[in-house]
Design a protein that fits this description.
The protein is an alpha+beta fold and about 190 residues long. It is about 25% helix and about 30% strand.
Length: about 190
Amino acid sequence: MAINHRKCTRCGSLNTMPIMYGEPSYEAFLESEQGKFKLGGCMVSPTSPEYHCRECGNEWNREDAVTHAYEQLRGMKAVVGGYPDGNYEVDIDFEERKLVWSHEEESHKIELTSSDIERLLYELKWLNILNWRAEYVEPFSMDGTSWRIEFRRDGRNLKKRGVNDFPEEWKEFCQLMRNMSGKEFR
């Protein structure tokens, strides 16, 4: 699932329209009157809104949508492993600020601070993890490393997984899990 920039960051509606900037032509003015887009004026800045919600009137840009998507995460569970090393697992509850690392029979619990969670969300956003494909699979492998990440959100959870194939940012993600847990994650 890629981040849906057109989804309202306030009410969640998809009944939205783009905002067009610049001097409108006569045809563009007529199209805006038909509700195809909203006219935003002649001046545009990097923080100018790009979308308008027809339901609640909210306006936002792509960066606001990305930030909102990461703020909706309630927790995550990441698992990686294979024969003969077994699975490494990191389960993080963002709201309770708890991390549980486990490998086979060993388990380790950590209390996180609010700043730990903020830093984690910042790093996940930097890794662009919500825009990773749902599945990475090397089709001609019989054995090797499998992994999965599940993000807990209100409503439907988001899952990513792979077998012997990884997103470009995988090594950085594993390092982040090692840094957060203080334990091995490979």
